[in-house]
Design goal:
mainly beta
């Protein structure tokens, strides 16, 4: 049974309430918006995503530190942060004004996702190691509320009316776990700081199953007061952070990542029901560039991303942008 407007927003309220309750202690609040409007891309495929993140350093005795003790290679003392995440994403074919099923373009799909990230870090002589472990639960389908939000927003801005949502993926709960490890060499160049190195990770679940590897570079002033770069779906948020009340700092970044996609529910279609699907490409690559500005308790970051073709019938690569605004409480 499909959830209606009231039920969908009740679910949103429940998840937002849980996120807000977690904000009783000091922490970093982040709002991330991803949209093809922020790039030269067209309106389609990964067309919009929004995510709220509450990240904090767990106190002694927090459940996350006890959990870290049982993880191989982790410890309570090396756990530098926990992030609670809540987000929604929407995916459409490029032509949203066509009412009939477009068989050779990606399915309509909405995703509502909540998750927890555990962040581990250790400093060594001239380099540092960072790890993140993510747990996600959510739902794909009408219950995500994506159709309602896109229809109402397009009506508000007098944009083209999306006509094909009746062909979207059916409701399906999703459970996923992901892990990423990165190695960052720290050096100086012309009075500024440089940080670069490889990363590797994986995801496992009925939403995504993949293995990934990449290379990232950061260049700027005050890198020791921050770590990570903003992530873009299907990667998880929470890793990009900075120290509060440290004045002004900035950095630019560039990164590439390749993924072997063994499963992508948003392209492969529903697991237990017949639905629209396309021929998923097994190898997908991303290239991204961007910059971040930090002032005391605030940070704003922008990312521009190019993504290779994700399915066989796709005519061209995708590109979209991400804006991230963070502040300490």
């Amino acid at each position: 049974m499909q959830l209606g407007y009231v039920e969908t927003h009740w679910c949103w309220g429940l998840l937002l309430g849980a996120l807000t309750t977690s904000a009783s202690a000091d922490g970093l609040l982040t709002l991330k918006v991803e949209n093809d409007l922020y790039s030269a891309g067209g309106d389609g495929h990964y067309t919009n995503g929004i995510e709220g993140i509450w990240a904090f350093e767990p106190a002694d005795g927090h459940w996350s530190r006890r959990f870290a003790e049982v993880l191989p290679g982790w410890s309570a003392s090396s756990l530098v942060g926990v992030a609670y995440r809540l987000g929604q994403q929407m995916y459409t074919p490029e032509d949203i004004e066509t009412e009939t099923l477009i068989k050779d373009d990606r399915p309509y799909a909405g995703l509502l996702l909540g998750g927890i990230s555990l962040l581990n870090e250790s400093q060594h002589d001239g380099w540092r190691l960072a790890e993140s472990l993510q747990f996600d639960v959510g739902i794909v389908g009408p219950a995500s509320g994506a159709e309602v939000i896109q229809r109402n927003f397009h009506e508000l801005i007098a944009s083209e009316k999306p006509e094909g949502w009746k062909h979207q993926l059916h409701n399906e709960p999703v459970v996923n776990v992901g892990y990423e490890r990165s190695w960052r060499i720290q050096q100086s160049l012309a009075g500024l700081e440089v940080e670069y190195g490889p990363s590797a990770g994986f995801a496992l679940g009925n939403l995504y199953t993949y293995a990934s590897s990449g290379l990232a570079l950061r260049f700027g002033d005050g890198l020791e007061r921050s770590f990570g770069i903003p992530s873009v779906a299907p990667a998880h948020g929470g890793r990009s952070s900075f120290q509060r009340d440290q004045g002004f700092s900035w950095y630019t970044f560039a990164a590439v990542e390749g993924r072997y996609m063994a499963h992508n529910l948003l392209l492969d279609g529903n697991t237990f029901e017949d639905s629209h699907s396309v021929d998923r490409r097994e190898w997908v690559g991303d290239a991204q560039v961007g910059a971040a500005l930090t002032r005391d308790r605030w940070q704003v970051a922008y990312t521009y991303l190019w993504r290779s073709k994700e399915f066989g019938e796709q005519d061209r690569f995708d590109q979209f942008g991400s804006i991230v605004l963070s502040t300490w409480f």
